[in-house]
Amino acid sequence: MATLGSREQLQEQEKRLREQIEKKHGKTPEQLHEEREKRILDVVELRVPDRVPVTVGAGVFAAKYAGLTSSAQYYNHAAFREACLKMMLEFEPDIGQAQGGNPGLVLEMLDAKDQRWPGGALPDDAPYQFVEGEYMTPDEYDLLLKDTSDFIVRYYLPRIYGALAPFSKLPPFTTFMAAQGYGSLLTIFSKPEFRKVAELLAKASEEQDRVRKEGAEFAGLMRRLGFPSMERNASAGGAPFDLISDRLRGMRGAMLDMYRCPDKLLAACDRILEWRIAQAVPADSTRGGKVKIGGGALHRGSDGFMSLKQFEKFYWPGLKKATFASIEMGYTVSHFFEGVWDQRLEYLLELPKGKLIFHTEKTDLFRAKEILGGHMCIQGGVPPTLLEVGTPQEVEEHCKKMIQVVGKNGGLILGPGSSIDYAKPANLKAMVDSVKKYGWY
């Protein structure tokens, strides 16, 4: 949970916090939760809420606000959750969630090559880094398409996790279909390096399960204290092209593939979409809050990465199909539209009305309101740079304009365009307070 201590101590802490919240607001946490959740539902479903909802992300900022280093997200999970709790109770946004990193010990045990994180290979207060690389060579498209699982296990995983290097020594999985295939399988896995891998994966799994369980308990605590959550679930994800560009071929490789082997690139996008949809789980209405969020982060489809012609061929078809699939499974889709999407806004009108959140980083939201207003909810609008170097007065004036223009007749969730790692606390407070000052309908 949020603090170290016995179960009785945690229950006493929750009781004390509930009493403080009720005394401050004259309402129970359950009443506050209902108000906030309805506010979010109204704006997502394009009804006019009582006021503009506001959200913040409790990542590095929460750690720093509580006097912790960035590495606490990866190694001191109890302290980080306590920091998130402190932040949410003091700033009181409409949505409460903790954005922690993957467990540092798990990343260390796996010897992750595609990530660098504070407290691991980086100093305690350094920003997280994703290490992009060509983890699939251009001549391996055929391997990916012919037997995706075989490629992932014997080629991809050993390249991004040093601890799984022995997997590269496995024979093709088809060899195990022989009458005595189990014999060769047992011989392989009895070798010392595979026994070591099995032990390591068991330990890593235990650590991962522990952190996930504690995270779920913390989300439950936040809901009981009046803060609805918008956690992402196992939907069909975002654009298949991004997975190839981010995790397999790298940006350079994927961009070259659009010219050198476009048919194989498109076939790979189709295959990825197939198994994403097959693995997706329908939204569970019995768990968590009423808003079930699906989708994913969108990178290479923004204005600066490819032409509209390329977007229509390589990016939009997969993104559109994945979005429809997630909606059909009961999700409200909230892709994170990273970068600038000014030239692509009209395409989004092809998606179902009132089923998506246009969570954007740097898109012109005034133009987005003109095009998407009345079709989908818009989230964001406050530049992290303004929160970092501006003044509270400048933040308030910016938010006031966003509320009056983009929030007109509903359809806006005010919040940072992206991460707020180095925001000034006074500026973040000014952003949250702005909706309570100007955002009532």
Please outline what is shown here.
With 441 residues, the chain is α/β, with parallel strands linked by helices. The chain is built from 18 helices and 9 strands.
Features:
441 residues, alpha/beta, five-stranded parallel sheet, two-stranded antiparallel ribbon, 9 strands
Characterise this structure.
- By secondary structure, the protein is an alpha/beta fold.
- It has helices spanning 7-25, 29-44, 60-65, 72-75, 77-91, 104-110, 141-146, 148-160, 181-189, 192-224, 240-248, 250-260, 262-279, 308-328, 365-372, 384-389, 392-405, 425-438, and strands at 115-116, 129-130, 293-294, 297-298, 332-333, 336-337, 357-360, 377-382, 412-416.
- Strands 4-6-7-8-9 form a 5-stranded parallel sheet.
- Strand 7 (357-360), helix 15 (365-372) and strand 8 (377-382) form a beta-alpha-beta unit.
- The chain starts with 6 loop residues before the first helix and ends with a helix.
- It is built from 18 helices and 9 strands.
- Helices cover 52% and strands 6% of the residues.
Biggest sheet layout: 5 strands, parallel
- Give the percentage of residues in beta strands: 5-15%
From N to C, what is the helix and strand string? HHHHHHEEHHHHHHHEEHEEEHEHHEH
| Quantity of strands, as a count | 9
- Rg, rounded, reads 23 Å
Task: Please tell me the overall pLDDT.
Answer: 92
Distance between the termini: 37 Å
Helix count from the secondary structure assignment: 18
Uncertain parts: none
Strand order of the largest sheet: 4-6-7-8-9
Globally, the shape reads globular
What share of residues is helical? 40-55%
Structural class: alpha/beta
